[in-house]
Amino acid sequence: MLDQFAFIGVFLIVALIFGVAPLVIAFILRPKKPNPRKAETYECGLQPHGDAWFQLKVQYYVFALAFVVFNVEAVFLLPWALAYHALELYAVVEAIIFILILLGALVYVWRKGALEWM
Amino acid sequence: MEFLKDLIVNLGTWLQDFVASTGLPQVWVRVIMMGIGGFALAFVPLVAVIFLIWAERKIVARMQDRIGPNNSGPYPGPWAIFQTFADAIKVLTKEDVIPAAADRWVFNVAPVVILTVAVLVWAVIPLGKDVFGADLNIGIFYILSLGSGGMVALLMAGWGSNNKYALLGALRAIAQLISYEIPQVLSVLVVVMVAGSFSMRSIVEAQTVPFLIAMPVTALLFFVASLAEVGRLPFDLVEAESEIVAGYFVEYSGIKFGQFCLSEFMNTLALSVITATLFLGGWRGPWVDDVPILGSLWLLLKACLVFFVFMWLRGTMPRLRIDQMLGFNWKFLVPVALVNICVVALVGKAVPLDADPWIRAGAFLAANVLLVLAVLGVLAAAGRQTRRRKEAWQAAQLEQLEQEASPA
Amino acid sequence: MLQQILFIVFGVITLGAALLVVTRRNVFHAALFLILSFFGVAGLYVLLEAPFLAAVQLFIYIGGIAILIVFAIMLTREVMNPNIAVNRQRWAAALVAVILCGVLGWVVLNHDWGAGDPGPVRADSIVYLGKTLVHLEGFALPFEVASVLLLVALVGAVTIARER
């Protein structure tokens, strides 16, 4: 099993070379004329206004949290799905209960209005 | 002729014998073979992208009732394919403008990471019978995990630009990517359940009946989720040219911008090949047992078909807003994906494992059709309820207006 | 031999990145080094012949929890202008840290961890994991309790959204 990962290791190095090579080629080929006007932050052609931060809406965090919950659920279900062919009916019912609890949680969150973007 | 019948595998064996005959120790032979194989594998998407950019421009143009690029300077007709090379040269020779306030390390590493991740995906995809990089036992899961690498690159790009709009664009892109990863994983789960293995090779070998026929709902879920994962229309809000100033790569110029676009194209290609492998049967097709090289041809045709559907959607559909996109995911795709797992799990246990594959496929198909009808029924009921509530509200408004009008 | 080298490499990545996480002044850089540290741990999982756990590490930790951490960082106000006030309790904190390090080190070095060769890894380890997860004498009850835990997390998300 591990020798397959040896290929992944070698391929990672190849992929890194593929990622860096265009940068190197472009570094050789392109003009270099730095200029303070060019280095300004871009804001639709106007002068940049204020600091480059803003406070994020909490909605982003709620969606990321929901994502982590469902991600963990998917990871719990993956080994079960792999062992599906060798499982009895009760195991399938167990997993269906697992899914239904989380489906209920999703519907709860939906009805409470936490899934609105605004 | 025999050599040609299984061209790629025979080439590989010949090369290995050649390298081994130079007398190097076994380990070095293997490493060199892996290196050569890795380079060849990484060139496949690169070469394909050159053709596909041209194909996309022509096809989307035809859908929009125009011709698209049909010359490259003085050479008319199919020489327009060289426009891709012109694009590449333009992007390589443009000046690299880095904003003064940007975070140099993070800014420069982001395009490298995103292109590396886009290339790494190709390690586990079977490009033909016995033609693959590595047959990992976590095949499809490896591909899904690499999506997180792309998210990190996005984050670095958005933050490293030190630009409000870039950061906002990057965070919205990440919100879209993480939301649509759930139905993608849940539909892959169903495929893994029926095929019994993560390894892409085993999934292809388990498809005596293509999974598209057996599980159309799952295929549709994966397809739509992949559309959003790659960021193509109708989900391309994050790079929408008319919206937040080109999103997270607004401060990038030259080759770094080129790398972002290239990685998006390579991801689209990778996802169309993965869809073809998971749902259309990969390299399976007529006469593959006798002439294994035909397997690669079948895979190419199937991937082109899926890519054509991607382009078709791009030429036809309008763009969704971020709240519509997220609502569609969390309120429709995720519940349908979860219910789909339950249904397929129950049906899979109801039909015995050693039955004829076509009967099993038929049972799954029937269950999927029932699921579609049930979902449509739920949607219709919800639509009716909304309409009734709206009519009641309108009637109440009308009454109120009449009441206000009558004393006057 | 190669495994030793790879173990050292991944160990250095993990610990080095973890060290950089706690010493960086810029919170976002700290988050990026945390992601690198997670990647190192995934490499260690691969060396332990648990590729499924390595992919889970990438999938959940980097793809979920690191993103969550970054969003939480963005929710605070002073992320872009880090003017970090000097902590006045630095010396007391250093003393407590050294004492804790000493206690933990003594425990680790004096305990008999029962290290031995755990035997070869099963060829179908993920399938075995799946079977044990739902087996009635396996982890069926923790499996269902985990789903209730995830439900609690989602209810918590509702509470966060409601505050605004």
How is this structure best described in words?
The complex is a heterotrimer of chains A (118), B (408) and C (164). With 118 residues, chain A is mostly helical. Chain A has one domain (2-111): Methane Monooxygenase Hydroxylase, Chain G, domain 1. Helices cover 64% and strands 0% of the residues of chain A. The longest helix of chain A is centred in the N-terminal third of the chain and has 28 residues, at 2-29. Chain B has 408 residues and is mainly α. Chain B is built from 14 helices and two strands; from the N terminus they run H-H-H-E-E-H-H-H-H-H-H-H-H-H-H-H. A two-stranded antiparallel sheet of chain B has the order 1-2. In chain B, a hairpin with a 2-residue loop joins strand 1 and strand 2. In chain B, helix 2 packs antiparallel against helix 3, helix 5 (104-120) packs antiparallel against helix 6 and helix 10 runs antiparallel to helix 11 (255-279). The N and C termini of chain B lie far apart (97 Å). Chain C has 164 residues and is an all-alpha fold. Chain C folds into two domains: 1-82, NADH-ubiquinone/plastoquinone oxidoreductase chain 6, subunit NuoJ (Four Helix Bundle (Hemerythrin (Met), subunit A)); 123-164. Chain C is 74% helix and 0% strand. Chain C contains six helices and no strands. In chain C, helix 1 packs antiparallel against helix 2 and helix 2 (27-47) packs antiparallel against helix 3 (51-75). The radius of gyration of chain C is 21 Å and the shape is globular. The mean pLDDT of chain C is 86. At the B-C interface, helix 6 and helix 7 of B face helix 2 and helix 3 of C.
